[in-house]
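Cross-posted from the bioinformatics board.
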Amino acid sequence: MAIKKTALAGTLESSDIQITLAPAASGGIQIDLDSAVASQYGDQIKKVITAALQGLGITDALVKAVDKGALDCVIKARTIAAGQRALEQTEPAWEVL
Amino acid sequence: MSKNNVGVDISDDILSTYDYKPFAGTQLGNPVSHRVAPTVRAQFGENKVVDSIAQVVKAEVKDGMTISFHHHLREGDQVFNEVMQVIIDAGIKDLTLAPSSLTNVMNDMVVKAIQAGTVTHITSSGMRGSLGDAVSHGALKTPVIFRSHGGRARAIETGKIKIDVAFLGVPNADEQGNANGMTGDAAFGSLGYALMDAKYANKVVLLTDNLVPYPNTPASINQTQVDYVVKVDQVGDPDKIGSGATRFTKDPKELKIAQMVNDVITHSAYFKDGFSFQTGSGGAALAVTRYLRQAMLDKHITASFALGGITKPTTDLLAEGLVRKVMDVQDFDKGAADSMHTNPAQQEIDASWYADPFNKGAMVDKLDVVILSALQVDTHFNVNVLTGSDGVLRGAVGGHQDAATAKLTIISAPLVRGRLATIVPQMTSITTPGESIDVVVTEIGIAINPDRQDLVAALSHIPGVPVFTIDELAAKAEAIVGKPAPIEYTDRPVALVEYRDGSLIDVIHQVKE
């Protein structure tokens, strides 16, 4: 499934991550990551974002992730919030949480 | 290849090229050394004041020389950039830069001087920001040498650092070069680190924005040492030299750590009348001073002295009579600087008196309790205060190695910072050996060095202070942040970290792009 509109979740506070999703017709999930811990945790952060989006059924999206040292649980939560906003789901998909 | 006492492999090539012995332990015995003396050109009362830095640089600075600065003006420093620009403009090459430390305000100018070929060698207490980045990525052909404040004093006294010209910013001076750090717009208090340069450099150049009538007293630096006095517009921005008012942290994590540090101190055998201590300037360290004050009042205990870098909370204890003497090598805020001016019990000490392991007795040897910080602590209690988790230079040795020789050395550090673990199995570099670290305090509890069974007995049953092994703390940190990918380095050394006695404790390599 491709997303319908651009959506954002998260802030630029310490220990948070800001996820912005934009529609992409194809090309899979493409992540542009900006993180001070990219050299140690970049791959892990991308893995968590990809898995969370796939859990929502999103297969194609442009992702801008501005990380401020977020833990995996925060990355997952922000990605799901952004994904559901991009899909215009008004009710959380509880079963994927 | 040989392994030093903290398990670092050091190549024979590095040992022979840079003339080092591997670090062998913190017990130094009674080394015998020779002190060098500077070259002196006699003067007979001629006015030493010159109007331009360029004039002094033209007369005194030549290719290949070693020049020095102090860092007492910290982020407000306006001397360093002005002098370095003149030296770059003069086309001078191949200098060794040997300041007491480098602050952020100097970073871009040092990078510029490296790119211009003006500076090709650096020895410092630390570096960070754009300069740390540049050096970590291989900007210099020869590795930077990092020394502690005591180590720098030793290196200067024994001639390992031979300063040709020292450029020293002072907030007041007379025309003969009598000067102190206590009055004037750019007053910063103790001149502790600069006193070494004033004593041992071949040429001593004072820069001041405040020429006062002769003779100027009290004279920390005096006319017997000074060749030139340069009048400049401003030596420093008072607002950036030190924080004006010290604010106590409201961060619950820092307060929790501070409370536990206080518990560790007050439950140790060292907390008795006449004890001595050193604290740093971090949020937790300042809060410790506040808790310690209450504990001292409650138990009717006074301290014989407080040592090192001084803050207002410490000088408040002096004013209150809870501390008998403050032995002051630098002042971190205006309150502490003012107190040095008004309170004779606050003694200015130079870096050698403070911490040099090769003199006839440094004050750190008399120190009971010290609270130090850490970027990383490994499971052997070794501490890193120089490189970040990404392997890039972003700190300073400072007095860490020196003060860590205290009888009770406490590291206060959060378990994790953001996504980065502080207690780790493997650090990016080693600054201070675990042999001199006794207790690590985090917000979840403490770890006691098993070599100190006396402390294990004294500190294992304090209410509200859980005790873990250092391995347990590292495991708890990793459970929160996950396992990081290892940092990759090239074979090229970018920095050599000396222990305070001049042996080699670590080699920092260039990080891979």
